[in-house]
Task: structure prediction
Amino acid sequence: MRALGVASASVALALSVSGTALACDISEFSAEAKCDGDKGIITVTDVDPSGVPATVSVFLQNNGADLKKVGEQEVKGSREGVTITFAENWKPNAEYRIHVKAAGYVDADIKPNLTTSSTACKKEEETPPPASDTPTPSAPASTPAEETDSPTPTPSESDSTPPVSSVPSPAAGDSNLAETGANSNTGLIAGIAVGLVALGGGAVFFGLRRRGASSDR
Result:
């Protein structure tokens, strides 16, 4: 009987130690800031093999004080690990306090506090420079292709050829004789005229003499 009692006590002590080892502990929780596309998230993983229910709360810190409560969820861990997710569009280098509470087992923060990456999940779009009020001078209107590419019209035969006069032009020999007076009838006409004048003068002279002789009788 004494030996049986010693054995029972040993088993009870072993079960007690084993239960304590399997109990929920703060070291079994971890937190991480990640990106889900362009949005930020905070994940908390519980690897408690005993599966003790625990409440996880996330707080945004500012100068060592809670600025806001991001959210609160319950988790039951496992040896493989169970992860819960908090949607939080975190800023670069932001600090978060993660608190875990499991009744009768743990009531503490994950140490150290979670600090986010220096790069945001969504890149800030560059703001375009303000439009200037000064109007931009417009480029001079280009010459229409029809004007620049069209060839220079070739003058037609009727435009380039001088009009032909209907009056027949004198022959080269005639024009030269008219200018110089050679081979013309001017001398002949002048001689005839002088002869006629002389004949007329003679006729008048003889007529006057005859009239004077008749008057003397």
